[in-house]
Amino acid sequence: MVKKESAQRLGIDIGGTFTDLTLYNEDSKVFNFVKTPTTPSDPFEGLRKGIDKLGISVASLSDFVHGTTVGTNAVIQKKGPQVSMITTKGHAGVLAMDGAVRSVLYDIKGRRPEPLVRRSRIYEIAERVLIDGSVLQPLDQEELRQVLSQIAKTDAKAIAICFVASQMQNQNEMQAKALVQELLPSLFTSVSSEVSKHRGEFERFSTTVLNSYIGPLVHPYLKKIVSFLTTEGYRGSFWITVAGGGATGVEQAFTFPIFTVNSGPAAGVAAAAHLAELLGLENVISYDMGGTSTDVCLIKSFRPPTIRDVAVSGYPNTSPQLDINAIGAGGGSIAWVDIAGEFKVGPMSQGANPGPACYNLGGAEATITDAVLVLGWLNGKESLVGEISLHSELSREAVSRVGHCLGVADEYRIAEAIIDLVTLKMVGAVKEVSTGRGHDVRDFALVAYGGAGPMFATGIASQLGIKKVVSPVRPGHFCSTGMLQSNVFHQYSRPVRIMTSEATIDNIYSIFRELRTIGEKQLIGEGFKQSNMRFEERLSIKYPQQHYELEIPMAPSIEELEKSFYTAHRERFQFGFTERLMIMELIVDAWGLKEKARIMKVPTKINKLADALKENRPVRFAGSFVETPIYRRDDVPEGICINGPVIFEELGSTTVVQPGWVAHVDDLGNLILKNEG
């Protein structure tokens, strides 16, 4: 009898500095973790090297889940291809108008990013749909043929079809799409009514252009992975994590690559919500600090909020996303002095190549990693993730150069200043998603992860008045592990324009049933049973004369729906009125529920804390060096309590417990840190 090979699931998160892989054996419930430097020129190479490092047969995998930064990086770095846009006659200037809304109201020097489509590449076509969905003018197909003939002579690699009011009636857009696919099949094509149902032309057009801009880059990257998996004999499912906090099939990602933007951080938030539920922490703030950026998200009642009104590098993106606040602060963030003599940290980053000065790979700028190495927070005697040797003397030289620009000779003071400044930036990021939105941050615990998150967590929490911090098992692999905890996610919506005074519950539920039926069909096609499906229904509502909308969960009656809106509006904007409302959109989130890969601490044979001690070394806190115990985190026994200062080291991450804090190892292996100072 042939022994059945154990089913294994693999999650891969490609960050700006490192590529993280989490392997989970469904039978033994054992995890294996690998970290390898990201290869920015070809992210697939870092992915492949990580798989080789795991030493597994790809054919043995049952689940392959991946989050990609290809699309995000293309927009940030402006490295996408040439895009042509086809729009309604008289509306070629929509992208340049930028919605006429300032992100910062009183910033008179604020600059909007240049549109991703040049004006010379925007073509107008005779067609018109009215806001009520009626077709005023059918598509002029002959005119479109002439336009496509012009586009064929250019170097365009993608087309964005963006017609006015197409979210209400997409007949003309679909005819245009069919003609483009017939005459220019090699071009990546996006259609605004398929990409977004947003009522605002500028926001919907922008999202569609973004989809076309990154499509020609994401598409071949994903095809490369598909080809690799096929060659290796893989027969399982291939999922791509999406910004909405779940995963989708690779075919969906081919068509809508915009959904993959910022998908890695979203997987970490999903994992934080799952962990919060396991620990019974109803309200937490997820805090993810990696090599390039820091991402924070407020999770209330175990549910992270979803929004559809954010920007990617200044460009509106209305696809569903978790409400994550990202700032340019990571281990590779550069400390520098501007022309006016002002001391700054980030947002520029050394990334994976050349990396911080201490990597000795060509980087000479002082970074956050260099600062913590100078202060003793990071172990300078060991290689980083087993691959990158650290050179403390290079860190001190780099930090000293910053000090020279500021007229300060003490490199320790400069290193502390770097830490103080970046801590202040991260405190501000947390406040923006908490106190800035009417929440008392002291009512929340901080879940810290990423390679650098647990290093700064207690310092941030102290300034915010947060009393509890959780450093989860393997925090450096939390996002890749979160990919194995992500459910499959799809969103469906129907634009409407109904006053609540005219709406009925029966009519609303009728539309919801139609959307649910579509979701059920898709999930069944992906292998899910009815018992493994979950649906959530929301309405996008606003005051009739208001620009911004709020998404409100469905309620048993119109009256309760209105009350929910008034409460949410006052909480979000600190004011509100009791008056009629307009329903703009009905939304259904469809979830295919997958078994959660629950990470737990591997039992250790060590029973005494002393046996887990690596060394004692001088570590600088608050202006002076303190002899600090350094423990191998994997060997620290369950149930132990240790007073700070103390440092826990492990593969891919370091947890720094500052003076005044107490560390406790719970029965799952998480470090629970409490402020006793």
Short description:
This protein has 16 helices and 34 strands.
The end-to-end distance, rounded to whole angstroms, is: 62 Å
Structural category is alpha+beta
Helix percent band:
25-40%
Poorly predicted runs of 5 or more residues: none
Q: Provide the CATH architecture of the domain at 80-213.
A: 3-Layer(aba) Sandwich
User: What is the helix tally?
Assistant: 16
Overall 3D geometry? globular
Average residue-wise pLDDT: 90
Largest sheet: 8 strands, mixed
Instruction: Give the beta-strand count.
Output: 34
Write the layout of secondary structure elements.
Layout: E1 8-14, E2 18-25, E3 31-37, H1 43-54, E4 61-67, H2 70-76, E5 83-88, H3 94-97, E6 122-125, E7 128-129, E8 135-137, H4 141-152, E9 158-162, H5 171-183, E10 188-191, H6 192-195, H7 201-231, E11 237-241, E12 247-249, H8 250-255, H9 263-279, E13 283-289, E14 294-300, E15 306-307, E16 310-312, E17 315-317, E18 321-322, E19 325-327, E20 333-337, E21 343-349, H10 368-375, H11 392-406, H12 411-433, E22 445-449, H13 453-464, E23 468-471, H14 478-483, E24 488-499, H15 505-525, E25 533-542, E26 550-553, H16 558-573, E27 582-592, E28 613-621, E29 624-632, E30 641-643, E31 646-650, E32 653-657, E33 661-665, E34 671-675
Parallel strand pairs: 1-4, 4-11, 5-6, 5-9, 9-10, 13-22, 22-23, 29-31
Antiparallel strand pairs: 1-2, 2-3, 7-8, 11-12, 13-14, 14-19, 15-18, 16-17, 20-21, 23-34, 24-27, 25-26, 25-27, 28-29, 30-33, 31-32, 33-34
Helix pairs in contact: 2-7, 4-5, 10-11, 10-12, 11-12, 12-13
